[in-house]
Amino acid sequence: MKRIVLVRHGESQWNKENRFTGWTNVDLSEKGLQEAFEAGKTLREKGFTFDIAYTSYLKRAIKTLNNVLDAMDLDWIPVRKSWRLNEKHYGMLQGLNKAETAAKYGDEQVLVWRRSYDVEPLPLPEDDPNSATLDKRYALVPDEYIPRTEALKQCIERVMPYWESEIFPRLKQVDNIVVVAHGNSLRGVVKHLKGISDSDIVKLNIPTAVPYVFEFDDDLKLVKDYYLADPAELAAKQAAVANQGKAKL
């Protein structure tokens, strides 16, 4: 049996403030740091181990991975970072409060911006201080690959070449991989692994710092997938993610 465990980063400061984050390099909140450590403890208690880890270029994912590995006493394993695992770029929405944006544009429009497959927000201006084109961590990334906005479709088109050329083939060499990334970059991976349709992907909500396990046979065929969480607690966390984009009554 071979396994890949997907983990969305712990609560970030902007998750806490209910803001669109995207490629903005926001840190974890205190709760997020603890969530990450607890995810690592759960994995260790369930007998998991990892041979290699992957994460994005964004601080909230990197710190989550560090805490997970610390809790598992696996700080020494190889870690690969790629900008291709970054969150979906939210364009002009980055930094805006989700509930306030829903109050202005309507819950349905915000749901489309957050979860639809092929509708992207307006692009972030080139001179915005949070533009990735001004960020030194992307200095070696060709400009045409740096997004100014993305729908899930474009996010998947960015993530999947790395998944298919680096992460998934690694299972031929090792038995256990952990990938710590973001809500939408991981939604793209799950969509691919489970064959979720473009229309149904809107319903998929991935909670912070809950390990999501995918088991494969030796031919790398998916056998089963499951979260390491109590079902009721998992459902509550998924509902909380879904409700972030609704206007407060």
Shape descriptor reads globular
The average pLDDT score comes to 94
Class of secondary structure makeup: alpha/beta
Share of helical residues: 25-40%
Strand segment tally: 6
Largest sheet: 6 strands, mixed
Low-confidence stretches: none
Fill in the keyword field for this structure.
249 residues; alpha/beta; 6-stranded mixed sheet; 8 helices; 37% helix; globular
Q: How would you characterize this protein structure?
A:
- The protein has 249 residues and is of the alpha/beta class.
- The chain has helices at residues 13-16, 30-45, 59-71, 98-105, 107-115, 152-167, 183-194, 231-243, and strands at 2-8, 52-55, 79-81, 176-181, 212-216, 222-227.
- Strand 5 and strand 6 (222-227) form a beta hairpin.
- The longest helix is centred in the first third of the chain and has 16 residues, at 30-45.
- The protein is globular.
